[in-house]
Amino acid sequence: MGLLSPRDLLRRSVYMPWARIPPGRTVELGGRGTTYVTDTPGPTPDAPTIVLLHALGCTGLLTWYPAIEPLSRRFRVVTLDQRWHGQGIRSDEFSLYDCADDVAALLDVLELESVVVAGYSMGGVVAQRMWRQHPDRVQGLVLAATSDRFQLNLAERAFFTGMGTAMLGTRSLSRSRTAVRAARTAVRALSLEPSDIHDWAMHEFRSTSPWAVGQALAALGRHHSRPWLGRIDVPTAVVVTGRDHIIPPARQVALARAIPGATVHDLEGGHAACVLEAERFVPVVVEAAVTVWARRRDFARGAS
C-alpha cells in the first residue's frame, strides 16, 4: 500500500462538516480598499443583521460557513475578510483599529445603521473594538473563544515580543504583490459551492499568508480592552470554549464577568470548535445571537 498524499491524509485525519457556501462579491469600502463579502438574506426583508468576524489566519467563510445558514433563519448574515486575510484589504501595517473601522465602512456600503456583531477568537477582539470605536452602530455583541488581553504571563509576553521582532525581518513580504495575487487567484479559482469541502477549506486557508498571521498576532499582543469593558452598554453574549488550549476558558469567563449583564454560553469544545466541532458550536452560537437580540429592548429601557 503506497503512502497517502497530503490531500488524502487531510481528508482522513481532519473532519470537515459540509454546509452550503454562500456566494459573495468583492466590495470597495469607501476608499479604504476592497474585501470579499457575503450577504445572506434573513427570513424576512426586515430581519436584523448579524456581522460575523473571523478568527486569526482564516477567512470570513472558513470560520463561519457551518453557522451561516442556521443563523439566516433568524438574521440577515454578513461576513467579510478582514485586513491581510483572504481577499481582505492590503495595507502596510495590520491594525485592529483599522479592522473595526473597516466593519463600519462596510455597514455604510450596505446601508445598515446598526447590527449585531459576532466575533470568533481574533474576530471577538475586533468586535470589542467595533463597539469602542462605533458604539452607535452596534446593537449587540457575541464574543466567542476570545479574550480582552493576551500578555498575562511571562511565556505569553516572550511569545508576543518575539513575534513582533521576527516580523521585522520579513517586513518586505507585506508588499509582495505576487503573494497577494496568488492568494486571491487561489480563492477565485474555486467554486463557492464545492463538492469537496476539504479542497475548498485548504484554498481558503492558503489565501492568508504567514506574514499576515504574524502581523495580526503582534497586534493581538498589544490589545487590552479591560479598562473599558465595564462601559459596554449593549447586550452581550460570551461563548466559552471549555476545552480551549489557546485561550483558557477561565480567561473567557473573566471577559464575560467584566461586561455588564453579559450572558455565558458554554460549549464543550476546543479553539477550532467553530468548524471541527460545528455540530456542538452552531446551536450554541445561534442561542447566543438570539439571546442578544431578545435582550436589546431591556438595554434600551435601561438607558432611557
From TrEMBL:
Superkingdom classification of source: Bacteria
GO terms assigned for molecular function: monoacylglycerol lipase activity
AB hydrolase-1 domain boundaries: 48-276
InterPro entries per record: AB_hydrolase_1, AB_hydrolase_fold, AB_hydrolase_sf
GO annotation terms (biological process): acylglycerol catabolic process
Gene3D superfamilies documented for this protein: alpha/beta hydrolase
Any single GO CC term annotated in Swiss-Prot or TrEMBL for this entry: membrane
Protein name: Pimeloyl-ACP methyl ester carboxylesterase
The organism's taxonomic lineage, starting at the top: Bacteria, Bacillati, Actinomycetota, Actinomycetes, Propionibacteriales
